[in-house]
Amino acid sequence: MAHSHGHTPAAWTGSIIAFVGFCVASAFTVMAQPIGVIAGLVVIGAGAVIGGIMRAAGLGQSKSAGMTAEQARAHKLAHQQAHPQTHSKAHS
C-alpha cells in the first residue's frame, strides 16, 4: 500500500509558506525587531490557513488515503514481529 505522507499541493504550499514565515521570524528575532517577529508568526499562521483552505478545496490528501486504525495496528504488529530485538529493549 502506497502512502502519500502529505505530498499534495495543499501540504507543500502550507509548508513552504510556514517555512518562509519561520525564516522571517527568525531573522527578525536575531535583529531584535519584535514587529518583524510578529509578522513572521502571522505568515506561519497564514500557511496553516491557506493549506487548510486548499485541502477543503480538494487539493489535499483525502481521509481515505491513509491507513485505517485496523491497518495501523496490523502494520505495527508486523513491524514488531519483524524487529523483536528493537522493541524488547525499549520496553524492558
Total strand segments: 0
Count every helix, treating DSSP H or I runs of 4 or more residues as helices.
Answer: 4
Element order: H for helix, E for strand:
HHHH
Strand content: under 5%
Arithmetic mean pLDDT:
84
Shape: elongated
**Intertermini distance:** 32 Å
Helical residue percent band:
over 70%
Radius of gyration: 19 Å
Low-confidence stretches: none
Q: Which secondary-structure class do the elements indicate? A: mainly alpha
Overview of this structure, please?
The protein is built from four helices and no strands. The chain is elongated, with a radius of gyration of 19 Å. The two termini are 32 Å apart. With 92 residues, the protein is mainly α. Helix 1 (9-30) packs antiparallel against helix 2 (34-59).
Keywords:
92 residues, 4 helices, elongated
How would you summarize what this structure contains?
The chain is mainly alpha-helical and 92 residues long.
Summarize the helices and strands and which ones pair or pack.
Elements: H1 9-30, H2 34-59, H3 69-82, H4 84-90
Helix pairs in contact: 1-2
